[in-house]
Design a protein that fits this description.
- By secondary structure, this protein is of the alpha/beta class.
- It has three domains: about 35 residues; about 210 residues, Rossmann fold (3-Layer(aba) Sandwich); about 170 residues, Ribosomal Protein S5, domain 2, CATH 3.30.230.
- The protein is built from eleven helices and 23 strands.
- The strands form five sheets. It has a nine-stranded mixed beta sheet with strand order 8-7-9-10-6-11-12-13-14.
- The longest helix is centred in the middle third of the chain and has 16 residues.
- It is globular and about 70 Å long.
- It starts with a strand and ends with a helix.
């Protein structure tokens, strides 16, 4: 007799009849989740409406077409009304795309999508589907955010996906917003909403809706699990066209929007928002916002100029290096790769003579940014050396560059853009690698300090 349940891997989506500690396919540990077995559809049994088994309206799959014959008329972009969101999406949303928004509870996902309805509904038909709020609650939030429907925004409080698809088929909107996919369910499955099977089935149906002939753009909100990933099977992120993560601390007002996947643009762009009483407000100048309140004359802080996609951003790296009270020194890193930070501390001790082996080291990037490019190596190293020697770095000094294991400094890309942003914010000195800067055009009022080794950079910054 067949079991009534089956085990799904939340990472790769593979199914198994028995539970095991490790998934044999992706080798992830403790990722198998028990869920009811989905009913098997036979050929004689008609599929329910909106079934994702075949994308309605597509050409015959047995008749491939030449690349030159494929038209791009339907793959047009449109603005969401928020410049920061358009930047992360790659220049605007693409018609017929499926976009997934993830984030911690209360970070502002629903607020962001409801705000863009005000701009989208000026020229497009929008259906906002909520499985978590009633219509009166959505209206109350819309009034607070000053969102107007302009006669083209329709609200729907429904959790049955088949009912939602029926409404969409009848109204034929341009935009569909789902808040959230964990609240949707299909009658063909007996499992509870939010389970692995329900999330996978609902995502397939929404993908069929977006990729059909109607060319509907679908925005979907997904909740995060305790590991910080979007709840549900990992295959959910593989099916959608774009995965956006909304990040931010509840104690702070800033919010960072970054792309983890984007089939139509770069994944290196970020968008910065400020959460206020009237909703999310764009921050077009993130460098000035992130450097606000920077202390003067304090050791252990250095300004880094990093490249987020095509945008140079100035951010403050802080370090606190102090003698340890225990036998084993403590290391804590926020906003940087931990292993990279440990490597820089080793280079600082071996190549520059700044001993940190018996010291606790705490490194933090102000503003909630995650600096993952090599250009952040040099300012991180300078901040640690400044704290260890208790000598402040000049307030008008900025630095960027990659640090090698031999202590050498290597060049990074987009130097003119970085230096232009540094000069625009009033910095007068900038430490950069000497390699590849012979014919560099220097902005007026900016002194470049070209160095080859970390010891030279320390001498220039801590003189």
């Amino acid at each position: 007799m067949k079991s009534k349940t089956i085990f799904f891997c939340s990472e790769c989506g593979n199914e198994y009849a028995k539970w095991s500690g490790q998934c044999p396919a992706c080798e992830s540990w403790n990722t198998l989740t028990e869920a009811p077995r989905a009913p098997v559809r036979t050929a004689a049994r008609p599929m329910s409406s909106g079934s994702p088994q075949r994308i309605a309206g597509r050409d015959d799959p047995g008749a491939p077409r030449l690349l030159e014959e494929v038209s791009l008329a339907g793959e047009t972009r449109f603005s969401t009304g928020l410049g920061e969101l358009d930047r992360v999406l790659g220049g605007g949303a693409v018609c017929g795309s499926l976009v997934l928004f993830g984030g911690e509870p209360g970070v502002g996902k629903s607020t962001l999508l409801l705000q863009i309805c005000d701009s989208l509904s000026r020229g497009l038909d929008v259906v906002y589907v909520s499985g978590e709020e009633s219509l009166s609650q959505i209206k109350l939030r819309a009034d607070r955010l000053k969102v107007r429907g302009h006669g083209r925004l329709r609200l729907l409080a429904e959790t049955n996906l088949d009912a939602v698809l029926g409404v969409v088929q009848r109204l034929s909107p341009h935009i569909v917003i789902i808040d959230s996919i964990q609240t949707l369910y299909r009658d063909t499955l007996s499992s509870a909403p939010g389970s692995v099977g329900q999330v996978k089935e609902c995502a397939l149906a929404l993908m069929a809706l977006a990729k059909g002939t109607s060319n509907v753009t679908v925005f979907v909100i997904g909740h995060l699990n305790k590991e910080g990933a979007i709840a549900g099977p990992k295959v959910l992120e593989h099916m959608v066209d774009c995965v956006l993560y909304f990040e931010g601390e509840r104690q702070h007002s800033y919010r960072v929007l970054r792309a983890a996947k984007n089939r139509f643009g770069s994944t290196n762009e970020i968008g910065l928002f400020d959460m206020r009483e009237e909703g999310l407000v764009e921050v077009p100048n993130p460098s000035e916002f992130l450097l606000a309140g920077r202390p003067e004359g304090v050791s252990g802080t250095c300004v880094a100029c990093v490249l987020e996609g095509t945008r140079p951003v100035l951010s403050e790296v802080q370090a606190l290096v102090t003698p340890t009270s225990f036998g084993v020194p403590r290391r804590q890193v926020l906003g940087l790769d931990y292993n990279r930070a440990m490597l820089l501390l080793a280079v600082l001790e071996k190549r520059a003579g700044v001993f940190t082996g018996n010291c606790d080291a705490y490194i933090n990037v102000i503003g909630g940014l995650k600096l993952d490019e090599p250009g952040a190596d040099l300012p991180t190293l300078l901040a640690c050396a400044s704290s260890a020697r208790d000598k402040p770095i000049g307030g008008r000094l900025c630095a960027f560059g990659e640090v090698g294991l031999a202590g050498e400094l290597r060049a990074v890309g987009a130097l003119p853009q970085r230096l232009g942003e540094v000069a625009r914010l009033g910095f007068t000195r900038c430490i950069i690698p000497k390699q590849g800067t012979q014919n560099l055009l220097v902005p007026d009022g900016l002194e470049l300090i070209r160095v080859r080794h970390v010891s030279q950079a320390l001498s220039a910054a801590l003189a």
